[in-house]
Amino acid sequence: MSVSRTAKIISGKIIADQIRSELIVEIEALRRKNVTPGLAVVLVGENPASQVYVRNKRKTCAELGLHSFDVDLPADVTERRLLASIDKLNRDPKVHGILVQMPLPKHLHEQKVLNAILPEKDVDGFHPVNAGKLLIGEPGFAPCTAAGCQELLLRSGYDPAGKHVVIVGRSNIVGKPLAALLMQKAAGANATVTVCHSRTRHLAALTRQADILVAAIGIPEFITGRMIKDKAVVIDVGINRIDDPTRASGTRLVGDVHFAQALKKARAITPVPGGVGLMTVIMLMRNTVSAAKQQTSR
Amino acid sequence: MSVSRTAKIISGKIIADQIRSELIVEIEALRRKNVTPGLAVVLVGENPASQVYVRNKRKTCAELGLHSFDVDLPADVTERRLLASIDKLNRDPKVHGILVQMPLPKHLHEQKVLNAILPEKDVDGFHPVNAGKLLIGEPGFAPCTAAGCQELLLRSGYDPAGKHVVIVGRSNIVGKPLAALLMQKAAGANATVTVCHSRTRHLAALTRQADILVAAIGIPEFITGRMIKDKAVVIDVGINRIDDPTRASGTRLVGDVHFAQALKKARAITPVPGGVGLMTVIMLMRNTVSAAKQQTSR
To answer: Nearest CB to B130: which of A132, A172, A185?
Structure first.
């Protein structure tokens, strides 16, 4: 008789709510000092996915009592005008954090735009100064999704210290910053880190060694059960919409991990939706509150 | 009858000389435009090891026809005065590169001093902006020893693309920047990278998987033969002085790899001395020449 094991579900909802409760206390403390953390969310054009993300960020600001500065620019905005908007936000003392929603229309140079944000207001953690501080191990802003993965691990009791973390995917948004974050000689880190990607040979042989496996490659259900070590902790960063004729919508969301197969192998796993995806916005709020504290405590 | 294999020796001398020859051509081309690359080497105090390193850097400048700006400050220099010196060098158009020899006396904050160097003159690659560009994959200055390891691999015909590189050590000078360098989606990189360190469990099981093994942990002969995969390429970054009563000096230099044991397992290996150690200074010269080109081509 086979015993069917089922992994523990790591709820992004529960953990994001914990952080939200902690932030409410911090925001209240700032308010008593007449400080309201302010976040500028810059949206260029009308990419439907970007509109959803931006609306969600602005809504969460409102719920937490943060000032949301909405900057909506047309898809054909010149780089000069976009940079001028950022410069204005850089100089506005009420704006503690600035986020430019990616991707930008093709005629705009994304890294140049990110570089224009003051590092101390770069709550998305994409400015080279913040990426560098992350790698060096100096305090700064870590990209929100990567920081969210670390929080999910720590708050579920899976400290990466001494563990072998295998990250599949090397984006600037998740894979590389998460690797930098977890390899540091620091509390909540101290992991042995392997970064795999599209060019990795014998991928399954590597993923099967992971005590903690992070899937951030953007391919639906790419990580199958046989790629997961028995009792590994699996963090699924992917959010992919695939066809599903059994649903009324005709589609459903899946991660980069084959969830049903992973359930039978892993010790714990983040679901999609309801896992990492819920962490990104709350980490953005946390970075904004930190920025407000730093900028007003001088 | 056992066949005793012997690894190919990767000569830092030969490869550094190749790069030196290439640089001489570039420096000559710059001279025809009335540009002489200038490097300021700042030495604080009288640490004997630092004095040796600084002398070597200044001597190499002279040999290549670079301007060497010598700034020697007393061990008790104030941070303010040191920062004022750096500021002066930042503003001097004849100085294209600035290097502050580490370590600094305890009363000086090293990262604060490094942060004061203009990123475009930071030829040591230790400013957060350059560390961040390295992680993001943007052009910038990579730390010289890490860049030297990559050059040794590429110029010996061991392209890391698709290979599993295991790096033992996570310093800001070698381990972390080399990991960032080799995991990029870029020519000369594209490796699968694992970073191990003092907190790694089952270290030998990981090092034995390395197609390319980099030892940068600072412990004499730490990597033994049994930790090396058959036919791996071994890059030994360590330079350790140990007792040796058979030598007239009573000591000798060894790397972080047990060389005699590695010779029998590896496909190729860098010796100590004569390997990575010879690359650092020439990569510094290359960064300085690049800096001069960038600063004078505007």
So the answer is: A132
- Closest residue in chain A to residue B136, using alpha carbons only: A172
3-class DSSP assignment, residue A246 = coil
The angle subtended at Cα B81 by Cα B75 and Cα B85, nearest 5°, is 100
pLDDT recorded at residue B18: 98
> How would residue A229 be classed by pLDDT, with cut points 50, 70 and 90?
very high
Q: Do residue A128 and residue B127 have CB atoms under 8 angstroms apart? A: no
Question: Phi and psi of B249, rounded to 5°?
Answer: -75, -15
pLDDT at A198: 86
B218: left (phi over 0), alpha (psi -120 to 50) or beta: left
Active site residue B236: no
Model confidence pLDDT, tens digit, residues A189-227:
999 999 999 889 999 999 999 999 999 999 999 999 999
Q: Over the stretch B72-110, which tens digit does the pLDDT of each residue have? A: 999 999 999 999 999 999 999 999 999 999 999 999 999
At a CB cut-off of 8 Å and minimum separation 6, what does A2 contact? none
Indicate if B143-278 has the same CATH topology as B34-118.
yes
Q: Where are the domains of chain B?
A: 34-118, 143-278
Would you call A261 a catalytic residue per the annotation?
no
| CATH domain B34-118 topology | Rossmann fold (3.40.50)
Q: Is B57 a catalytic residue?
A: yes
Alpha helices by DSSP H, chain B: 12-32, 48-64, 79-91, 110-116, 128-136, 144-155, 175-183, 203-207, 259-265, 277-296
CATH number for the B143-278 domain, one of 1.10.760.10, 3.30.390.50, 3.40.50.720, 3.40.50.300? 3.40.50.720
Counting other chains too, the contacts that B26-30 makes at CB distance below 8 Å and 24 or more residues apart are: B26/B289, B26/B293, B27/B64, B27/B65, B27/B66, B27/B289, B30/B289, B30/B292, B30/B293, B30/B296
- Chain B environment of A217 (Cβ under 8 Å): none
Return the CATH number of A143-277, one of 3.40.50.300, 3.30.43.10, 3.30.470.20, 3.40.50.720: 3.40.50.720
Q: What is the mean pLDDT of chain A?
A: 96
Which of the following is catalytic: B17, B70, B72, B124?
B124
Flag whether pLDDT at B277 surpasses 80: yes
User: With an 8 Å Cβ cutoff, is A130 touching chain B?
Assistant: yes
Q: Which of A211, A208, A214 is nearest to A177 (CA)?
A: A214
Is there a contact between B194 and B160 (Cβ–Cβ < 8 Å)? Answer: no
What's this model's pTM, rounded to 2 decimal places? 0.96
pLDDT, one tens digit per residue, over A24-74 is 999 999 999 999 999 999 999 999 999 999 999 999 999 999 999 999 999
First to last CA, chain A: 66
CA-angle at A37, arms to A34 and A43, nearest 5°: 145
Between chains, do B140 and A134 touch, taking CB under 8 Å as contact? no
Give me the amino acid identity at B63. Answer: E
ipTM of this predicted structure = 0.95
Report the alpha-carbon distance of residue A45 to residue A61 in Å, rounded: 21
H-run or E-run covering A62: helix A48-64
The length of chain A in residues reads 298
